[in-house]
Design a protein that fits this description.
By secondary structure, the chain is of the alpha+beta class. Helix content is 30%, strand content 23%. It has 13 helices and 22 strands. The strands form 5 sheets. Strands 1, 2, 9, 10, 11, 12, 19 and 20 form an 8-stranded mixed sheet that branches. Strands 13, 15, 16, 17 and 18 form a 5-stranded antiparallel sheet that branches. Strands 6-7-5-14 form a 4-stranded mixed sheet. Strand 21 and strand 22 form a beta hairpin. The protein is globular. The protein starts with a strand and ends with a helix.
Length: 478
Protein backbone atom coordinates (compact mmCIF):
# COMPACT_ATOMS: atom_id res chain seq x y z
CA UNK A 1 0.00 0.00 0.00
CA UNK A 2 1.23 3.47 -0.89
CA UNK A 3 0.94 6.33 1.56
CA UNK A 4 -0.42 8.56 -1.20
CA UNK A 5 -1.47 8.14 -4.82
CA UNK A 6 -1.77 11.21 -7.04
CA UNK A 7 -4.04 10.83 -10.05
CA UNK A 8 -2.74 12.90 -12.96
CA UNK A 9 0.76 13.93 -14.09
CA UNK A 10 -0.09 17.38 -15.34
CA UNK A 11 1.46 20.45 -13.79
CA UNK A 12 -0.74 20.36 -10.66
CA UNK A 13 -0.14 16.66 -10.06
CA UNK A 14 3.59 16.99 -10.70
CA UNK A 15 3.89 20.05 -8.44
CA UNK A 16 1.99 18.18 -5.71
CA UNK A 17 4.23 15.14 -6.14
CA UNK A 18 7.37 17.26 -5.82
CA UNK A 19 6.19 18.99 -2.66
CA UNK A 20 4.96 15.73 -1.11
CA UNK A 21 8.39 14.20 -1.85
CA UNK A 22 9.87 16.59 0.72
CA UNK A 23 8.50 14.17 3.32
CA UNK A 24 9.22 10.57 4.24
CA UNK A 25 6.50 9.04 2.13
CA UNK A 26 5.80 6.16 -0.24
CA UNK A 27 4.10 7.99 -3.11
CA UNK A 28 2.95 7.17 -6.62
CA UNK A 29 1.53 9.12 -9.56
CA UNK A 30 -0.95 7.35 -11.86
CA UNK A 31 -1.27 8.84 -15.35
CA UNK A 32 -3.57 7.49 -18.04
CA UNK A 33 -1.40 8.82 -20.88
CA UNK A 34 2.08 7.67 -21.92
CA UNK A 35 3.97 10.62 -20.44
CA UNK A 36 3.73 13.62 -18.17
CA UNK A 37 2.23 16.85 -19.55
CA UNK A 38 -0.26 15.24 -21.94
CA UNK A 39 -3.45 17.12 -21.03
CA UNK A 40 -4.28 20.73 -20.20
CA UNK A 41 -0.68 21.41 -19.21
CA UNK A 42 0.68 20.85 -22.71
CA UNK A 43 -1.66 23.21 -24.60
CA UNK A 44 -2.08 26.61 -23.01
CA UNK A 45 -0.91 30.21 -23.28
CA UNK A 46 2.32 29.61 -21.30
CA UNK A 47 1.64 32.80 -19.34
CA UNK A 48 2.73 33.52 -15.77
CA UNK A 49 -0.13 35.79 -14.74
CA UNK A 50 0.50 38.68 -12.36
CA UNK A 51 -2.69 38.07 -10.39
CA UNK A 52 -4.91 41.12 -10.94
CA UNK A 53 -7.78 39.25 -12.60
CA UNK A 54 -9.05 36.81 -9.95
CA UNK A 55 -11.70 37.96 -7.48
CA UNK A 56 -10.42 39.47 -4.23
CA UNK A 57 -10.27 36.94 -1.42
CA UNK A 58 -10.54 33.91 -3.70
CA UNK A 59 -8.21 30.92 -3.49
CA UNK A 60 -7.45 31.50 -7.15
CA UNK A 61 -6.22 35.04 -6.42
CA UNK A 62 -4.04 33.99 -3.48
CA UNK A 63 -2.39 31.03 -5.20
CA UNK A 64 -1.88 33.04 -8.42
CA UNK A 65 0.14 35.72 -6.62
CA UNK A 66 2.03 33.15 -4.52
CA UNK A 67 2.84 31.03 -7.58
CA UNK A 68 4.01 34.09 -9.52
CA UNK A 69 6.42 35.00 -6.73
CA UNK A 70 7.77 31.45 -6.58
CA UNK A 71 8.35 31.01 -10.32
CA UNK A 72 11.75 32.70 -10.71
CA UNK A 73 13.32 30.73 -7.86
CA UNK A 74 11.76 27.50 -9.08
CA UNK A 75 13.05 28.10 -12.61
CA UNK A 76 16.56 28.56 -11.24
CA UNK A 77 16.38 25.45 -9.05
CA UNK A 78 14.82 23.19 -11.68
CA UNK A 79 16.47 24.69 -14.80
CA UNK A 80 13.53 25.62 -17.04
CA UNK A 81 12.81 28.72 -19.10
CA UNK A 82 11.08 31.68 -17.44
CA UNK A 83 11.11 35.34 -18.52
CA UNK A 84 9.45 38.12 -16.54
CA UNK A 85 8.54 40.22 -19.57
CA UNK A 86 5.54 42.00 -18.04
CA UNK A 87 2.00 42.23 -19.36
CA UNK A 88 -0.39 44.93 -20.59
CA UNK A 89 -4.19 44.94 -20.43
CA UNK A 90 -5.23 47.27 -23.25
CA UNK A 91 -8.29 49.51 -23.26
CA UNK A 92 -9.36 50.65 -26.74
CA UNK A 93 -12.32 52.86 -25.83
CA UNK A 94 -12.43 55.74 -23.33
CA UNK A 95 -15.81 54.65 -22.00
CA UNK A 96 -14.20 51.49 -20.62
CA UNK A 97 -11.39 53.26 -18.73
CA UNK A 98 -13.21 52.76 -15.38
CA UNK A 99 -12.87 49.03 -15.98
CA UNK A 100 -9.11 49.45 -16.19
CA UNK A 101 -9.12 51.30 -12.87
CA UNK A 102 -11.24 48.52 -11.32
CA UNK A 103 -8.69 45.95 -12.47
CA UNK A 104 -5.87 48.05 -10.99
CA UNK A 105 -7.57 48.22 -7.59
CA UNK A 106 -8.44 44.53 -7.64
CA UNK A 107 -4.85 43.64 -8.41
CA UNK A 108 -3.51 45.81 -5.61
CA UNK A 109 -5.91 44.20 -3.14
CA UNK A 110 -4.67 40.79 -4.35
CA UNK A 111 -1.11 41.84 -3.50
CA UNK A 112 0.22 42.33 -7.05
CA UNK A 113 3.25 44.62 -6.97
CA UNK A 114 4.13 47.40 -9.40
CA UNK A 115 0.76 47.77 -11.11
CA UNK A 116 0.08 51.09 -12.84
CA UNK A 117 -1.95 52.54 -15.68
CA UNK A 118 0.00 53.88 -18.66
CA UNK A 119 -1.39 56.39 -21.16
CA UNK A 120 -1.29 56.09 -24.92
CA UNK A 121 2.01 57.91 -25.42
CA UNK A 122 3.92 55.68 -23.03
CA UNK A 123 2.05 52.62 -24.27
CA UNK A 124 3.15 53.23 -27.87
CA UNK A 125 6.75 53.75 -26.72
CA UNK A 126 6.58 50.41 -24.89
CA UNK A 127 4.85 48.53 -27.73
CA UNK A 128 5.06 50.21 -31.16
CA UNK A 129 2.67 47.65 -32.67
CA UNK A 130 -0.10 48.37 -30.21
CA UNK A 131 -3.49 49.09 -31.80
CA UNK A 132 -4.12 52.59 -33.11
CA UNK A 133 -7.30 52.54 -31.03
CA UNK A 134 -5.53 51.87 -27.72
CA UNK A 135 -6.09 54.69 -25.23
CA UNK A 136 -4.47 53.26 -22.08
CA UNK A 137 -3.35 49.99 -20.49
CA UNK A 138 -2.78 48.37 -17.13
CA UNK A 139 0.92 47.51 -16.87
CA UNK A 140 1.91 44.54 -14.70
CA UNK A 141 5.71 44.22 -14.54
CA UNK A 142 5.49 40.91 -12.61
CA UNK A 143 3.75 39.12 -15.50
CA UNK A 144 5.86 36.57 -17.34
CA UNK A 145 6.15 33.71 -19.78
CA UNK A 146 7.34 30.15 -19.24
CA UNK A 147 7.79 26.90 -21.12
CA UNK A 148 4.83 24.84 -19.83
CA UNK A 149 6.33 21.53 -20.99
CA UNK A 150 9.65 22.11 -19.28
CA UNK A 151 7.98 23.34 -16.06
CA UNK A 152 5.79 20.22 -15.88
CA UNK A 153 8.63 17.85 -16.81
CA UNK A 154 11.05 19.50 -14.37
CA UNK A 155 8.60 19.13 -11.47
CA UNK A 156 7.96 15.47 -12.32
CA UNK A 157 11.65 14.61 -12.78
CA UNK A 158 12.50 16.21 -9.44
CA UNK A 159 9.69 14.33 -7.72
CA UNK A 160 11.02 11.12 -9.28
CA UNK A 161 14.54 11.90 -8.08
CA UNK A 162 13.08 12.22 -4.58
CA UNK A 163 11.48 8.77 -4.69
CA UNK A 164 8.01 9.28 -6.18
CA UNK A 165 6.99 6.45 -8.53
CA UNK A 166 5.25 7.21 -11.83
CA UNK A 167 2.96 4.70 -13.56
CA UNK A 168 1.98 5.66 -17.13
CA UNK A 169 -0.76 4.24 -19.38
CA UNK A 170 -2.61 3.62 -16.12
CA UNK A 171 -6.21 4.80 -16.09
CA UNK A 172 -8.24 4.78 -12.88
CA UNK A 173 -11.53 2.99 -13.49
CA UNK A 174 -12.90 2.83 -9.97
CA UNK A 175 -12.13 3.83 -6.37
CA UNK A 176 -13.48 2.19 -3.23
CA UNK A 177 -12.80 3.01 0.43
CA UNK A 178 -11.14 0.20 2.37
CA UNK A 179 -9.96 -0.11 5.95
CA UNK A 180 -7.20 2.47 6.31
CA UNK A 181 -7.40 3.93 2.84
CA UNK A 182 -8.58 3.35 -0.73
CA UNK A 183 -8.45 0.65 -3.40
CA UNK A 184 -8.02 1.95 -6.95
CA UNK A 185 -9.01 -0.30 -9.83
CA UNK A 186 -7.08 0.56 -13.01
CA UNK A 187 -6.54 -0.92 -16.45
CA UNK A 188 -3.14 -2.05 -15.10
CA UNK A 189 -4.41 -3.74 -11.96
CA UNK A 190 -5.20 -2.74 -8.39
CA UNK A 191 -3.41 -0.09 -6.32
CA UNK A 192 -3.99 0.81 -2.69
CA UNK A 193 -3.20 3.99 -0.78
CA UNK A 194 -3.87 5.62 2.56
CA UNK A 195 -4.55 8.93 0.83
CA UNK A 196 -5.58 9.91 -2.71
CA UNK A 197 -5.02 13.23 -4.49
CA UNK A 198 -7.33 13.90 -7.43
CA UNK A 199 -5.40 16.05 -9.93
CA UNK A 200 -7.05 14.62 -13.03
CA UNK A 201 -7.70 17.87 -14.93
CA UNK A 202 -10.85 17.73 -17.06
CA UNK A 203 -11.51 14.26 -15.61
CA UNK A 204 -11.36 15.46 -11.98
CA UNK A 205 -15.17 15.35 -11.76
CA UNK A 206 -15.22 11.73 -12.89
CA UNK A 207 -12.68 10.76 -10.21
CA UNK A 208 -14.40 12.85 -7.52
CA UNK A 209 -17.81 11.39 -8.30
CA UNK A 210 -16.48 7.84 -7.80
CA UNK A 211 -16.24 8.46 -4.05
CA UNK A 212 -18.31 11.51 -3.01
CA UNK A 213 -22.05 11.95 -2.57
CA UNK A 214 -21.64 15.65 -3.40
CA UNK A 215 -21.21 15.55 -7.16
CA UNK A 216 -18.96 17.79 -9.23
CA UNK A 217 -19.06 18.91 -12.86
CA UNK A 218 -16.02 20.00 -14.84
CA UNK A 219 -16.72 21.63 -18.21
CA UNK A 220 -14.04 21.24 -20.88
CA UNK A 221 -13.45 24.75 -22.23
CA UNK A 222 -11.63 24.65 -25.56
CA UNK A 223 -9.16 27.34 -26.56
CA UNK A 224 -7.84 27.69 -30.13
CA UNK A 225 -4.35 29.08 -30.72
CA UNK A 226 -1.99 30.13 -33.48
CA UNK A 227 1.76 29.70 -33.12
CA UNK A 228 3.85 31.90 -35.40
CA UNK A 229 7.36 31.57 -36.78
CA UNK A 230 10.32 32.88 -34.79
CA UNK A 231 10.82 35.74 -37.23
CA UNK A 232 7.66 37.25 -35.67
CA UNK A 233 8.66 36.82 -32.03
CA UNK A 234 9.61 40.48 -31.56
CA UNK A 235 6.29 41.86 -32.83
CA UNK A 236 5.48 42.54 -29.16
CA UNK A 237 7.79 42.40 -26.16
CA UNK A 238 5.16 41.92 -23.49
CA UNK A 239 2.05 39.81 -23.16
CA UNK A 240 -0.87 41.85 -24.53
CA UNK A 241 -4.37 41.24 -23.18
CA UNK A 242 -7.62 42.98 -24.06
CA UNK A 243 -9.70 44.59 -21.35
CA UNK A 244 -12.94 42.60 -21.12
CA UNK A 245 -15.99 44.61 -22.18
CA UNK A 246 -19.61 44.05 -23.22
CA UNK A 247 -18.36 42.03 -26.19
CA UNK A 248 -16.50 39.62 -23.91
CA UNK A 249 -12.82 38.85 -23.50
CA UNK A 250 -10.30 39.21 -26.28
CA UNK A 251 -7.38 36.96 -27.05
CA UNK A 252 -3.77 37.54 -26.01
CA UNK A 253 -0.76 38.18 -28.21
CA UNK A 254 2.55 37.25 -26.61
CA UNK A 255 6.12 36.26 -27.31
CA UNK A 256 7.16 32.82 -26.11
CA UNK A 257 10.32 31.94 -24.21
CA UNK A 258 11.60 30.27 -27.38
CA UNK A 259 11.14 33.34 -29.58
CA UNK A 260 7.85 32.56 -31.33
CA UNK A 261 4.63 34.58 -31.17
CA UNK A 262 1.46 33.00 -29.77
CA UNK A 263 -2.10 34.21 -30.39
CA UNK A 264 -5.18 32.95 -28.53
CA UNK A 265 -7.13 31.42 -26.89
CA UNK A 266 -10.80 31.34 -27.68
CA UNK A 267 -13.18 30.08 -24.97
CA UNK A 268 -15.71 27.54 -26.20
CA UNK A 269 -17.44 25.15 -23.78
CA UNK A 270 -17.76 21.63 -25.17
CA UNK A 271 -18.80 18.19 -23.90
CA UNK A 272 -15.94 16.06 -25.26
CA UNK A 273 -13.14 15.82 -22.70
CA UNK A 274 -10.78 14.83 -25.52
CA UNK A 275 -12.00 17.50 -27.95
CA UNK A 276 -8.70 19.20 -28.74
CA UNK A 277 -9.35 19.64 -32.45
CA UNK A 278 -9.21 23.19 -33.79
CA UNK A 279 -12.16 24.56 -35.74
CA UNK A 280 -12.38 27.07 -38.57
CA UNK A 281 -14.74 29.19 -36.47
CA UNK A 282 -12.42 29.17 -33.47
CA UNK A 283 -9.36 30.14 -35.46
CA UNK A 284 -11.26 32.86 -37.31
CA UNK A 285 -12.33 34.27 -33.94
CA UNK A 286 -8.75 34.28 -32.65
CA UNK A 287 -7.54 36.01 -35.82
CA UNK A 288 -10.24 38.67 -35.56
CA UNK A 289 -9.90 39.39 -31.85
CA UNK A 290 -6.11 39.68 -31.76
CA UNK A 291 -6.35 42.69 -34.08
CA UNK A 292 -8.31 44.61 -31.42
CA UNK A 293 -5.17 45.18 -29.32
CA UNK A 294 -2.22 44.58 -31.68
CA UNK A 295 -1.99 45.81 -35.26
CA UNK A 296 -0.48 43.97 -38.19
CA UNK A 297 -0.18 40.61 -36.42
CA UNK A 298 1.69 38.59 -39.09
CA UNK A 299 -0.73 35.67 -39.32
CA UNK A 300 0.74 34.68 -42.68
CA UNK A 301 3.68 33.38 -40.63
CA UNK A 302 1.62 30.81 -38.69
CA UNK A 303 3.52 27.53 -38.48
CA UNK A 304 0.86 25.59 -36.58
CA UNK A 305 -2.47 25.91 -34.82
CA UNK A 306 -3.62 23.88 -31.83
CA UNK A 307 -6.32 23.71 -29.19
CA UNK A 308 -6.24 22.96 -25.49
CA UNK A 309 -8.88 22.28 -22.86
CA UNK A 310 -9.31 24.14 -19.59
CA UNK A 311 -10.93 22.36 -16.65
CA UNK A 312 -13.67 24.92 -16.03
CA UNK A 313 -15.75 24.69 -12.88
CA UNK A 314 -18.99 26.65 -12.68
CA UNK A 315 -17.87 28.72 -9.70
CA UNK A 316 -14.62 29.64 -11.50
CA UNK A 317 -12.61 28.77 -8.42
CA UNK A 318 -9.89 26.28 -7.56
CA UNK A 319 -11.17 23.38 -5.44
CA UNK A 320 -8.33 22.17 -3.21
CA UNK A 321 -9.58 20.40 -0.11
CA UNK A 322 -9.98 17.13 1.74
CA UNK A 323 -13.53 15.89 1.19
CA UNK A 324 -15.67 16.10 4.32
CA UNK A 325 -17.60 12.96 3.33
CA UNK A 326 -14.48 11.03 2.26
CA UNK A 327 -11.60 11.56 4.72
CA UNK A 328 -8.21 11.01 3.12
CA UNK A 329 -9.38 12.00 -0.36
CA UNK A 330 -8.04 15.37 -1.56
CA UNK A 331 -9.48 17.22 -4.56
CA UNK A 332 -7.21 19.38 -6.68
CA UNK A 333 -9.87 20.31 -9.21
CA UNK A 334 -11.13 23.17 -11.34
CA UNK A 335 -7.54 24.11 -12.11
CA UNK A 336 -7.98 26.39 -15.11
CA UNK A 337 -6.17 29.64 -15.85
CA UNK A 338 -4.21 30.83 -13.86
CA UNK A 339 -3.46 27.22 -12.96
CA UNK A 340 -0.05 27.11 -14.64
CA UNK A 341 1.07 30.21 -12.72
CA UNK A 342 -0.41 28.90 -9.49
CA UNK A 343 1.02 25.39 -9.77
CA UNK A 344 4.00 25.85 -7.41
CA UNK A 345 1.66 27.20 -4.72
CA UNK A 346 -0.96 24.55 -5.51
CA UNK A 347 1.69 21.89 -4.90
CA UNK A 348 2.52 23.40 -1.51
CA UNK A 349 -1.14 23.54 -0.49
CA UNK A 350 -1.83 19.94 -1.53
CA UNK A 351 1.32 18.71 0.22
CA UNK A 352 0.32 20.52 3.40
CA UNK A 353 -3.08 18.81 3.33
CA UNK A 354 -1.49 15.39 2.77
CA UNK A 355 1.11 16.01 5.49
CA UNK A 356 -1.69 16.75 7.95
CA UNK A 357 -3.72 13.68 6.96
CA UNK A 358 -0.79 11.26 7.19
CA UNK A 359 1.30 13.00 9.89
CA UNK A 360 4.34 12.99 7.62
CA UNK A 361 7.88 13.83 8.73
CA UNK A 362 10.09 16.10 6.64
CA UNK A 363 13.17 14.62 4.97
CA UNK A 364 16.68 15.81 5.63
CA UNK A 365 17.93 14.62 2.25
CA UNK A 366 15.43 16.28 -0.13
CA UNK A 367 17.00 17.03 -3.53
CA UNK A 368 15.88 20.58 -4.33
CA UNK A 369 17.56 21.07 -7.69
CA UNK A 370 17.54 19.47 -11.11
CA UNK A 371 19.51 20.01 -14.31
CA UNK A 372 17.66 20.17 -17.61
CA UNK A 373 18.75 18.92 -21.02
CA UNK A 374 21.94 20.63 -22.17
CA UNK A 375 21.46 22.94 -25.15
CA UNK A 376 24.82 23.23 -26.95
CA UNK A 377 23.80 26.63 -28.33
CA UNK A 378 24.12 28.06 -24.81
CA UNK A 379 27.84 27.20 -24.78
CA UNK A 380 30.77 29.15 -26.15
CA UNK A 381 32.39 27.91 -29.37
CA UNK A 382 35.29 26.41 -27.42
CA UNK A 383 32.96 24.71 -24.93
CA UNK A 384 30.79 23.36 -27.74
CA UNK A 385 33.77 21.97 -29.62
CA UNK A 386 35.04 20.29 -26.46
CA UNK A 387 31.59 18.76 -25.88
CA UNK A 388 31.43 17.43 -29.46
CA UNK A 389 34.93 15.98 -29.19
CA UNK A 390 33.89 14.14 -26.04
CA UNK A 391 30.36 13.22 -27.21
CA UNK A 392 30.09 13.35 -31.03
CA UNK A 393 26.29 13.02 -30.90
CA UNK A 394 26.15 16.71 -29.93
CA UNK A 395 27.60 17.53 -33.33
CA UNK A 396 24.88 15.67 -35.25
CA UNK A 397 21.96 18.02 -35.99
CA UNK A 398 18.65 16.11 -36.16
CA UNK A 399 16.12 18.96 -36.20
CA UNK A 400 17.37 21.72 -38.47
CA UNK A 401 14.57 24.18 -37.70
CA UNK A 402 15.33 24.20 -33.97
CA UNK A 403 18.97 23.06 -34.24
CA UNK A 404 18.39 20.07 -31.94
CA UNK A 405 21.22 17.55 -31.78
CA UNK A 406 21.24 13.79 -31.38
CA UNK A 407 22.93 14.30 -28.00
CA UNK A 408 19.92 16.23 -26.72
CA UNK A 409 17.53 13.56 -27.97
CA UNK A 410 19.57 10.83 -26.29
CA UNK A 411 19.45 12.77 -23.03
CA UNK A 412 15.67 13.16 -23.39
CA UNK A 413 15.27 9.40 -23.79
CA UNK A 414 17.56 8.26 -21.00
CA UNK A 415 16.96 10.80 -18.24
CA UNK A 416 14.41 10.08 -15.44
CA UNK A 417 10.90 9.67 -16.88
CA UNK A 418 12.48 9.69 -20.33
CA UNK A 419 10.69 10.26 -23.62
CA UNK A 420 9.14 7.25 -25.37
CA UNK A 421 7.43 8.93 -28.34
CA UNK A 422 7.92 11.68 -30.91
CA UNK A 423 5.81 14.09 -28.85
CA UNK A 424 7.80 13.17 -25.75
CA UNK A 425 11.00 14.11 -27.58
CA UNK A 426 9.35 17.28 -28.91
CA UNK A 427 8.25 18.51 -25.48
CA UNK A 428 11.69 17.96 -24.00
CA UNK A 429 13.94 19.18 -26.83
CA UNK A 430 11.71 21.10 -29.30
CA UNK A 431 12.70 18.71 -32.11
CA UNK A 432 9.74 18.98 -34.48
CA UNK A 433 8.44 22.32 -33.18
CA UNK A 434 9.98 24.50 -35.85
CA UNK A 435 8.81 25.84 -39.18
CA UNK A 436 8.58 22.46 -40.92
CA UNK A 437 6.67 20.93 -37.97
CA UNK A 438 8.69 17.69 -37.91
CA UNK A 439 8.52 17.17 -41.66
CA UNK A 440 12.22 16.48 -41.92
CA UNK A 441 13.36 15.28 -38.49
CA UNK A 442 10.66 12.71 -37.67
CA UNK A 443 12.27 9.74 -39.47
CA UNK A 444 15.64 10.40 -37.84
CA UNK A 445 14.07 10.86 -34.42
CA UNK A 446 12.12 7.62 -34.87
CA UNK A 447 15.31 5.77 -35.75
CA UNK A 448 16.95 7.02 -32.56
CA UNK A 449 13.94 6.02 -30.45
CA UNK A 450 13.85 2.59 -32.10
CA UNK A 451 17.56 2.04 -31.50
CA UNK A 452 17.71 3.34 -27.93
CA UNK A 453 14.50 1.68 -26.70
CA UNK A 454 15.13 -1.56 -28.66
CA UNK A 455 11.73 -1.26 -30.32
CA UNK A 456 10.62 -2.09 -33.84
CA UNK A 457 9.80 1.03 -35.86
CA UNK A 458 6.16 -0.08 -35.93
CA UNK A 459 6.11 0.32 -32.14
CA UNK A 460 7.25 3.95 -32.25
CA UNK A 461 4.31 6.31 -31.79
CA UNK A 462 3.59 9.98 -32.08
CA UNK A 463 2.02 10.20 -28.64
CA UNK A 464 1.50 6.68 -27.29
CA UNK A 465 -1.62 4.55 -27.60
CA UNK A 466 -2.76 3.94 -31.18
CA UNK A 467 -0.68 6.72 -32.74
CA UNK A 468 1.84 4.53 -34.56
CA UNK A 469 3.42 6.16 -37.61
CA UNK A 470 4.63 3.04 -39.43
CA UNK A 471 1.79 0.60 -40.10
CA UNK A 472 1.81 -2.82 -41.74
CA UNK A 473 4.70 -4.93 -43.06
CA UNK A 474 6.96 -4.52 -46.06
CA UNK A 475 4.84 -7.14 -47.83
CA UNK A 476 1.69 -5.10 -47.09
CA UNK A 477 3.22 -2.04 -48.69
CA UNK A 478 4.41 -3.81 -51.89
Amino acid sequence: MYDVIIIGAGVSGAASAREISRYRVHACVLEKEEDVCCGTSKANSAIVHAGYDAENGSLMARLNVEGNKMMAGLAKDLDFEFIQNGSLVVCTEKEYLPGLEDLLQRGRKNGVEGLRIVGREELVSMEPNISDNAVAALYAPTGGIVCPFHLNIALAENACANGVEFRFNTEVEGIAPIDGGFRLQTNQGVFEARCVVNAAGVYADKIHNMVSEKKMTIIPRRGDYFLLDKMTGSHVKRTIFALPNKFGKGVLVSPTVHGNLIVGPTAIDIEDKEGVNTTREGLDEAAKKCAVTVKNVPLRQVITSFAGLRAHQEGHEFIIEELKDVPGFVDCAGIESPGLTSSPAIGCMVADLVRGILNLEEKTDFIATRKGILNPETLSIDERNALINEQPAYGNIICRCEMVTEGEILDAIHRPLGAKSLDGIKRRTRAGMGRCQAGFCSPKTMEILSRELSLDMQKITKSGGNSALVVGTNKDRM
